[in-house]
Amino acid sequence: MNEAAAVIQLDHLTKRYGSITAIDAVTLDVEPGAVGLLGPNGAGKTTLISLLLGQTPITSGSGTVLGLDIRKQRRAVRQHTGFVPETDCFIPGMSGVGYVVFAGQLAGMGAASAMQRAHEMLDLVELEDERYRPVETYSVGMKQRVKLAQALVHDPDLVFLDEPTNGMDPRGRQLMLDLLQDLPRAGVSVLLSSHLLPDVEEVCERVIVLSRGRVLARGRIEDMSKPSETRYSARVTGDVRAFCEALQRAGVTVNDDEPGRLDLELPAANRSDLVFRAAVDTDVRLREFRPHRSSLEQAFLDALKAQGRVGPTPVNSSEGVADAHPT
User: Fold this and answer.
1) Which residues pair with 68 in a beta bridge?
2) Are residues 149 and 272 in the same domain?
3) Pairing, β 34-38 against β 20-30
4) Over the stretch 144-157, which tens digit does the pLDDT of each residue have?
């Protein structure tokens, strides 16, 4: 596959369950690298991954993964991709190493090659003697790591991950994120579906925001967190009250909920002169004056608000936007 080619290409991809449209005419190109898939509960993230892997029949539209038709070449798609599902899918009594070897053989590897590669991947995810125990005896974090090992055992070009850090302790979570960060450097693209925005920001360069089966926004995280042209943060010393009143008379919206800091919304771009003029008029000293940088969380919420999904109150990203905005 050409390195510059999109790893996923979709053309009006649609999936309906009776009267419910889970994926609504999605047209999308996904470039190589690490991409986050964001959306509230019920947005269609898991359904989309299932369609891309050929696990669920398409209602209409078309798509390719790594240049392979997701309707006609489903087995080939799965041979060249890895998948870490959100739910556990273990075979009772099977050891960790047996599980990873089995996954390799399902992808077309010979028994010896699958065994050698399984041990390499289990070393990578730091499962030592535990690999010989039945998987059902594993902790939540160990189960997540063995799922990553089986997704990588056959050396895929693209890995799909559905909430891979759910239930992990801080050390296990950081190990998982470090491993995911390394994959694009090794030439393996990543599609990470998660409601934990810090995880997405740490691993991914770009994001796709999905809601009600539609793509609401997409782009580079760096571009989404660009400085605002109208929102500024300020710290002043002196007669703060007089300063705020002067700003409000000039049409500036002032929020002073955070002690010692003012959140300012200018009436238009390039009107920072209003702030400096108010500072001179009220004889206060500006200790800090800088534009707000929009966060990934804010970009997510803005996309949902544009669709009428959420109110104006932001959520704590460490708690997860999906849980704060269920469908």
Assistant:
1) 65
2) no
3) unpaired
4) 999 999 999 999 99
